[in-house]
Design goal:
The structure holds 2 protein chains of 2 kinds. By secondary structure, chain A is of the alpha+beta class. Chain A contains 3 helices and 4 strands, in the order E-H-E-E-H-E-H. Classes of the chains: A alpha+beta, B alpha/beta. Bound molecules: iron/sulfur cluster (2 copies). One iron/sulfur cluster binds next to helix 1 of chain A.
């Protein structure tokens, strides 16, 4: 399943990448692949902006505006004028532990 | 074999009950708790197993089996707000009879997360570090950073993990990665973060392969079954608002120039109550279930399409003739289904914030305008019925 294309804020700076493999390990949608000695973005549109790659890249080679892809959270954020935040507590993704 | 039954009565996360047959919990903490599983009370003397006298500060020894309470709890979590209070005490847990070579896993203190982890550790001896995620599952807590770097570092040091085990591995669920800066954890604690598989059930295979999560294990899928278990929590909140809607409909249709009539309300209003229910069903159940088959990638459009089909089918039976009412049902109900379907973005495993924001940018103005026009159409139809227009 795919969501809207060309919307993700994911950015990759190859010059900082050391090829440590972390981003490939953590991305739940296989957005990154190894390309020789460095990582590379394979399929941008699969990115769901969870931020796992960015926070786990020790070399600052990835930037993404991480957040929750949840309509009611974003509407809440609009109403309160703050960051989108879920009030749905433990709701999401049964798939995750 | 009587002892296991005693053990079974111990509810996980409930420290008080555990102590019922023995001394106080404070006293117990000074005993080597990790041998307590085999008998109701801890042995009087600590067995000479480790070189040092260090006793791991564990909260409880837990079994890998689920009891009836665990199954019931899971069901209640799937269908109600019970999940908001389904928690275990954070801290270090022992599964089986772990020693200083056993693997260490991290989990959230949402009891269901913890239960799924421990049940997938069958036949293993392991340590589990439970983070205080305020009772929220790993994925959502990582998004909120409560399953986070600082909390993990604190729990590792509180548990004296460097003394509990002689290795430097700590295995985290991959879905916890958005909250954890692995390199910071290494720097502060010396422990290297290993990201395990997405699904706890793959843990045995992950361990067997020498801590190697295959691409399959690392990828989040969103199967129809995953979606099915999420639908109750989509439908219930929508249905909770239904009485307000029903009241409004009955009021509108019961309203006559000479007062409110219940018979009128029921006779004229019921098709709209039915359409309302169908829209909830369409947006909260059928659209989520049929995500891959409905055209368009936008949830708002998917929900609208399914909702529109429902209205078409329903109109085949209802045969509403009033022109403004007809316009009303085709305008209002598909968009209601669309709005409800859009809420499902919060439960999926592939919708990102930028995408949802984009949908909202287009959809919200449409919803607002449609709501206003729908109300107007209703008023026009009522006025027509009363012969005012
Ligand atoms: S985590 Fe950072 S440094 Fe490591 S491979 Fe990915 S981008 Fe490169
Ligand atoms: S933000 Fe999440 S989904 Fe997007 S590339 Fe990074 S890890 Fe993958």
């Amino acid at each position: 399943m795919r969501y809207l294309s060309n919307v993700t804020t994911l950015e990759f700076f190859p010059e900082k990448c050391t090829g440590c493999f972390r981003c490939i390990e953590v991305c739940p949608h296989q957005v990154f692949i190894m390309n020789g000695k460095k990582a590379a973005i394979d399929d941008r549109d699969l990115c769901m902006e969870c931020g796992a790659c960015m926070i786990n890249c020790a070399f600052g080679a990835i930037s993404v505006n991480a957040g929750v892809g949840c309509a009611s959270a974003i509407i809440n954020g609009m109403i309160t004028g703050g960051e989108p935040s879920c009030d749905c507590s433990s709701g999401s993704t049964s798939s995750c532990c | 074999m009587e002892e296991p039954r005693v053990k079974k009565r111990v509810r996980i996360g409930d420290i008080r009950k555990q102590t019922s047959c023995c001394a106080s919990s404070v006293e117990m903490e000074q005993e080597p708790l990790f041998y307590q599983e085999s008998s109701c009370c801890p042995p009087k003397k600590a067995p000479e197993t480790s070189a040092s006298n260090f006793v791991p500060p564990i909260v409880q020894t837990v079994s890998t089996d689920w009891l009836i309470d665990d199954y019931l709890g899971q069901i209640r979590c799937r269908v109600s707000s019970y999940r908001n209070s389904y928690i275990v005490t954070p801290g270090l847990y022992a599964v089986g009879r772990p020693d200083n070579g056993s693997d260490v896993f991290a989990s959230a203190n949402y009891k269901l997360s913890f239960d799924i982890l421990r049940s997938s550790l069958k036949g293993m001896n392991a340590w589990v570090i439970v983070l205080d995620t305020k009772g929220i599952n790993v994925w959502c807590a990582a998004g909120k950073r409560t399953f986070g770097t600082d909390e993990l570092i604190r729990r590792i040091s509180d548990a004296h993990l460097d003394k509990v085990v002689s290795h430097k591995r700590i295995i985290l669920p991959q879905l916890g990665a958005p909250g954890i800066a692995a390199h910071v954890v290494s720097k502060k604690t010396g422990f290297r973060v290993y990201y395990g598989p997405v699904h706890a059930k793959d843990i045995p295979a992950y361990i067997a392969s020498g801590y190697n999560a295959t691409k399959e294990m690392r990828t989040v899928r969103f199967t129809w079954l995953d979606r099915l278990v999420l639908t109750p929590m989509e439908m219930i909140p929508a249905l909770k608002k239904f009485p307000v809607y029903a009241l409004f409909v009955l009021l509108i249709f019961g309203l006559q120039p000479s007062g409110i009539f219940f018979r009128e309300a029921a006779v004229n209003g019921w098709p709209f109550l039915l359409l309302g229910l169908l829209s909830v069903f369409s947006g909260a159940f059928l659209t989520p279930l049929s995500l891959p088959f409905v055209p368009s990638r936008a949830f708002a459009v998917k929900g609208w399409i399914v909702g529109f089909i429902f209205v078409l089918l329903a109109q085949g039976i209802l045969r509403i003739t009033d022109k403004s009412l007809l316009a009303f049902i085709y305008l209002f109900f598909p968009l209601l289904s669309s709005y409800i379907a859009l809420q499902f973005t919060g439960s999926t495993a592939f919708t990102g914030m930028s995408g949802v924001k984009k949908e909202l940018r287009y959809a919200l103005p449409v919803y607002k305008a449609a709501a206003a026009i729908s109300f107007l159409l209703l008023v026009i139809s009522r006025l027509g019925q009363w012969g005012i227009l």
